[in-house]
Specification:
Helix 2 (35-45) runs parallel beside helix 3, helix 6 (148-158) packs across helix 8 and helix 16 crosses helix 17 (463-479). The relative contact order is 0.05. The chain has helices at residues 11-23, 35-45, 61-68, 85-95, 107-118, 148-158, 163-170, 174-188, 193-202, 220-233, 252-258, 262-265, 278-294, 337-381, 393-416, 429-439, 463-479, 520-531, and strands at residues 3-7, 27-32, 49-52, 77-81, 99-102, 238-241, 247-250, 298-306, 309-321, 327-336, 425-428, 447-452, 458-461, 484-490, 498-508, 535-540, 545-555. The protein contains 18 helices and 17 strands. Helices cover 44% and strands 20% of the residues. The strands form four sheets. Strands 2-1-3-4-5 form a five-stranded parallel beta sheet, with helices on both faces. Strands 7-6-10-9-8 form a five-stranded antiparallel beta sheet. Strands 12-14-15-17-16 form a five-stranded mixed beta sheet, covered by helices on one side. The chain starts with a strand and ends in a 7-residue tail after the last strand. With 562 residues, the protein is of the alpha/beta class. The chain has four domains: 3-129, Response regulator (Rossmann fold, 3-Layer(aba) Sandwich), CATH 3.40.50.2300; 220-341, 2-Layer Sandwich (Beta-Lactamase), CATH 3.30.450; 344-416, no CATH class; 425-555, Heat Shock Protein 90.
């Protein structure tokens, strides 16, 4: 069947999609929770199909579709979302998707759509195929239909992102994002971002939870109560001040820090409560006033008095602007530099102790492994005292197995302790791989079949570590229950500076591993991969299929022996 990647931010939805598609015989090769991770997953795994939810952070769903649909390596995309089809289905089709299924439909409908899309067909309602899309102009209260990029910007705004951050995510200018925002306000006949998001949530264009708004009206007292509750949940001293620096509201942590009630603090200024030393007050007030006038954040260090004790704090604040553009006040907080310094010192002491303990234990393990290696050498040297003259094969097998375990443990500790550094020189990865397989003693490796169309691949690499890593991966596959393994190697088109070397080991397990597949052998493989700056992954499916992937990017060797 087909390989499928899932891009959906909801864990329950991820699990439901994966279970249904695996029941239908498909293989889930990866799951991502946002657009950026999703694109990276698809580029890395090259699935036959991507099942995508539109409601994802960091690159909206429509933008992900557009990027995955760019030839020559376009990827089939099936949208599975709770957003209304009358608004989004045509947009998805225009962006390059091959199908659209609502999350309000059954999972069997999704499975049917997947089957059609992977077979080369499309899965859309007839209305979505019409040129006169219903993507916006038929929604009550909107003047025109939206473009895919406008929808993407709307989602980012609903997530609370600033114009500058949106521009960075989409690789466009701040001015362009502001233009999209202005178009959204014009097309929805709204006059503020809050009004825009409320209307968008009412019509299902964004989820109300993401828009940080409520579609029902609430009384002021209820809003105040909710604000105070959220305010008090902040674990740090925070207060809201007006333009003259008078406190409008303070959370419980702020009151506790100054040793009084929040009600007593409301209406007071720092100098009134004796909080700021007089010699610092003029400087502090000028800094605060300038920030208020320019509506910009501020930060300053000053001395305050708390419970008759002088302390040095770092005070900072940001302007709070209403939906109408008015200044509500400055949201201010203070960090006790003395307490912060003591906390940092405590953390540093704990870190130093942990590093010392780790180094000491690592040294103990290295010394133990060295002692065990000597004991093993002595055992191998003891002559057979039995009646038979042939070697005791069973005894030697156990000794060799013990020796391998000790050597792996010692190597793992050396790598974790940072005692090993890669030593790179010019090598042919194709030849290194073939030599390991050809020169391995009989029975030391599992049966294998090598599939490699790469004639040669010269680059700078630590050849010894690469061969060691490949051998460990083959042995790990054998220990998990794979009687034979297929080794696939490819080197995709690349630049002159870096050579991609992709190695995939697959096999069928006799049974699912009963214990933890993350053995000491696998831990050592991960450390070696990290040393080589390689990406290493292991996957075992419910169908007892094993797949180990290793991806390297090595510097190109401009001069080599051949």
């Amino acid at each position: 069947m087909s390989t499928v990647a899932i891009i959906d931010q909801q864990p329950s939805s991820q699990a439901g999609i994966a279970a249904e598609l695996e029941r239908s015989g498909h293989t889930i090769i990866g799951i991502a929770s946002n657009g950026v991770e999703g694109l990276a997953l698809v580029r890395r795994t090259l699935p036959d199909l991507v099942v995508l939810d539109l409601d994802i952070p960091r690159l909206g769903g429509l933008d992900v579709i557009r990027r995955l649909s760019v030839p020559p390596r376009s990827t089939r995309v099936l949208v599975f979302t709770a957003f209304p089809s009358e608004v989004y289905e045509h947009l998805c089709m225009t962006a390059g998707a091959l199908g659209f299924v609502s999350k309000y439909d059954s999972l069997s409908t999704l499975a049917d759509a997947v089957a059609k899309v992977v077979s080369g067909k499309t899965y859309f309602n007839a209305s979505a195929m019409k040129a006169e899309s219903v993507a916006g102009d038929t929604v009550e209260g909107f003047n025109e239909r939206f473009t895919a990029r406008e929808i993407t910007v709307l989602h980012y705004l609903a997530d609370g992102m600033r114009v500058k951050d949106i521009a960075g995510e989409l690789a466009i200018s701040d001015r362009t994002v502001s233009t999209y925002k202005a178009r959204l306000l014009e097309k929805t006949n709204t006059h503020s971002l809050v009004e825009l998001l409320r209307l968008a949530a009412q019509h299902g264009l964004v989820s109300a939870s993401n828009a940080h708004i409520s579609t029902s009206e609430t009384h002021t007292s209820s809003s105040d109560q909710q604000f105070n509750t959220l305010f008090d949940q902040i674990p740090y001293p925070v207060c809201l001040r007006d333009a003259s620096a008078r406190i409008l509201a303070a959370n419980q942590a702020f009151a506790n820090y100054f040793g009084c009630s929040a009600a007593d603090l409301v209406g007071s200024r720092p100098v009134d409560a004796g909080m700021v030393e007089l010699e610092h007050y003029e400087y502090a007030y000028k800094t605060y006033s300038a920030a208020v006038q320019q509506r910009i954040p501020y930060m300053l260090v000053l001395a305050i008095r708390v419970k008759d004790e002088q302390r040095v704090v770092k005070s900072s604040g940001v302007p709070v602007i209403s939906a109408d553009g008015d200044l509500v006040g400055m949201l201010c907080t203070s960090v006790d530099i003395g307490e912060q310094h003591r906390a940092l010192e405590n953390l540093q002491e704990q870190l130093t102790y942990a590093q010392t303990l780790r180094k000491r234990r690592g040294q103990y393990l290295i010394e133990y492994c060295a002692g065990m290696a000597l004991t093993i050498a002595n055992l191998k040297a003891i002559p057979n005292t039995g009646q038979r003259h042939e070697p005791d094969d069973a005894r030697m097998a156990l000794i060799l197995r013990l020796q391998e375990g000790v050597e792996m443990l010692a190597e793992l500790v050396r790598l974790e302790q940072g005692l090993a550094s890669p030593i790179s020189y010019v090598s042919d990865l194709r030849n290194l791989t073939q030599t390991l397989l050809d020169q391995a003693p009989a029975g030391s490796l599992p049966d294998y079949r090598l599939h490699c169309a790469v004639a040669s691949c010269w680059g700078w690499i630590d050849a010894e570590r690469y061969v060691q890593l490949l051998r460990i991966l083959l042995l790990h596959g054998k220990s998990l229950g794979a009687a034979s393994l297929d080794i696939y190697i490819e080197s995709p088109p690349h630049s002159d500076q870096k050579i991609p070397w992709h190695l995939r080991i697959v096999g069928a397990l006799s049974a699912l591993p009963g214990g933890d597949a993350q053995s000491i052998r696998w831990q050592l493989a991960q450390q070696l991969a990290q040393l080589l700056n390689a990406e290493l992954a292991l996957r075992i499916t419910d169908q007892q299929a094993l797949e180990i992937t290793l991806q390297l990017q090595i510097p190109t060797a401009t001069h080599h022996p051949l």
